[in-house]
Amino acid sequence: MASSWNLEDGYGQDVMTAARLRARDQGSTEAGLGELLWALTAVRSPVQRHLIDLGFDDEYSNLRSRASSRPHEAGPAVPPTNELRRVLALAQAESHAVGGERVEASDLLLGLLRHEGGRALLSRADGSLSALSVAVTRPSPFGVRLGQAAREGRVRPALNRDGVIDRLVQILSLRSRNNPVLIGEAGVGRRAVLNGLARRLAAGEAPPRLLDRELVLIDWHELITDRSTDFEGRLRVIFEKAATASSVLLCVHNADRYLDLHPRSEPGSVASVFWSLIARGDLQVILTMPPDVYRRHAARGSILDSHCRPIPVPELSVAETRAVLLGVRDTYEEHHGVTFGSGVLSAVAELADRFITDRHLPAKAIGLLDEVGAARRMKAPADEGTPPVGLDDVIATIADLTGIPAAEITLAEEPEPARPKPSRSPTRLPHAPASTALLIGTGAYDDPALPDIPAVANNLADLADVLASAFDPARVHRHLDPSITDLPRIAEAAESATDTLLVYFAGHGFVESDGDLYLGLKATELPRRKHSALPYDRLRDLVRDSPARNRVVVLDCCYAGRAVGTLAEYGDPTGQLDIAGTYILAATSPTRRAHAPEGERHSAFTGALVSLLRQGIDNGEELIRVAHLFPHLRTALVARGLPAPQQRGTDTVGDLALAWNPRV
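Predicted structure:
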C-alpha cells in the first residue's frame, strides 16, 4: 500500500501503519476512517497538536503511548476500506498541490476534511474545521490554492455564471482538447468563474474524475516581485512540477501577458516547454485572455486551437450586476462603515453601465460601489455610526470620476409594464460548438474608380466582438478584403456548421443589366464588375448548401434588398418556395444605396446593428431575437434619413437569438 499512495518514510507512513495496527488489534479486517483519525491523534507528527487542541486528546489519550511506541510493528497487512482509499486519493491530491514527493500526516488530515465521512467524524471537534484546515495546509509552490480556499469557505459564489461553469466542467472532462480558454474583456469576471469552479469541485458537484483535482492559480505578482529567482526559470519549474503532479489543475490567468502564444516559440523557451507538456497530455490548464488576443492566436490548426477550446465569458447585464452587488454588499459596508440600500445598489449598477465607459460590468459597478462608500464615509462626521449611502452620493461620485455634470447623471425612467407576449417557439442562442459566423468585407479596392470604405474593417472587428456571446470565437471567421480564391475556404467553414450559419457581407454592391446583385471584391474593376465581382448567387449557394438548420444572411451594401427576392430554392419557377430555415436582413431596398458616413467608425447600417446588440432593447426579452432586430433598426435608420432595411425569413429562424439583452 505504501507504494500505491507514495507514503514512503515519514509521518504519513507512520500514521497509516498505526491505523492498520489499530484495526488489526481491534479484530477488524479493514482499516477505516476511525482508525485513521485515531492514528493522526496518537502518532507524533506536526498535526497531532492541532487535533489535541480540538479535544480529540481525551478520547484517544489511553491509546497514544501504545501507538507511538511501535509505529512500524510487523503484522499482517490490513487493507483500507473503500472510504479510506478515497481519503488516501484525496491526500495524494493534497500532496501534489504543494509539490510534495510523498503523503504527509497533514495531507491525510486534509484528505479526511475533504471526505464527507471524514468531516462527519471530525465534526465532534470543539473548534472550527475551517481553522484546522488553514492551520495544517502547506503553501503551494504553484500559486494560490483556489480549491483549498473554497473548501474553507473563503471563496464567493460566481453569480449568473452557471452556464459558463457547466461548459468549463464539460471541457475539463473531455479526453482531448480538454484545456479551456475563458475569453472575456477585463472586468467581466473571468477570475470569478474560476472561483465558481473551485466551489463546485469543493461541493462535489462534478464528474468523479475531477473531484480529486486541486485547482491552483499561478500567482503572477509573487513571481514578478520575487527577485531571488529568475522569473522564467521559476515558471518553467512550476509547469514541470505541475506536470508530474497529476492532481493539479493549473489556472493561468491573463496568459497572454506572460506567455508567448506564438505557434513557433523559441526552442527551449518557457512557452515551448509549456506547450510541449500540454501536447503530451502531461499538463492540463485553464487559460484566460481577452477576445482580441484569442482571435489573433487561435487560427485553425494553431497550437492554441489544437489543444484548447474557447468559452466566451460575456459581460453581465445590469440586472445580473445587481445580484453581484447584493452578494458583496456586506463586505463593502463593513469596510467603509456605511450602509447600502437595495435601491442604491440598483442605481450603482445602472449608472455604472451608462456613464463609466472604459471598463466592463460587473467590475466597474463594484469599483463604483467602493468609491461611493469611501466618499460617503469621508463626508460623515466622526461620531456618526453607519451613515446610509443615497442616490445623491452615487451621482456625486460619478461626476467626480468622469467629469460629467451631476445634473446630466440621472436614472432612466421606469418603463411601463410590458404587455404579455404571444406564445412563440423557444428562443435560444446558437449551439456554439456547431455554429459558424462568416464575416466578409471589402474595404480596400485596387481600382481607383472604386472608393475605399475604411469602416468595413471596424464593422468586421466589432461584429466579431458582439457575436462572441453567441458563437464560439474560434468559429467566428473574419475575411477582410477577400479574393475569389478565398471562396473554397469560406465554403468549407460554412459546411462545418450544423446548427447555425451566419453570413455577413459589407462593401460595394452592384446591379447589372440582368438584374442580379454582385458584391465587390478587392480586385473588382468597375468597368468589368460583372466578371470581377462576386455574384450574390454564389454566396446564396454557399448558404443553401450548408447543413446548418438555421441560416442568417446580413448584407450591408448598395442594393442589398435585391437579395431578399432571391431566397427561393432552385427548381421553383414561382419563386415562392424559400430556402428552409433562412433569414435575410438587408441594409437597403433593391434600388437604394447603402451609406458609410465619412469619419464614422462603422457604416450606417452595421453601426446601428452593433449598437443594438451591445446596448440591448428596452422592455424586451432576455435574448435579442433575429426577428426583433428589424423593427428597431428600421426606426433608428429612418429617423436619421437613411434607407430603411429589408427582411425576409422562413420557419421559426426569427426566434433564433444573437445576443443577450443587457437591458433586461
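Summary: The first strand starts at residue 143 and ends at 145.
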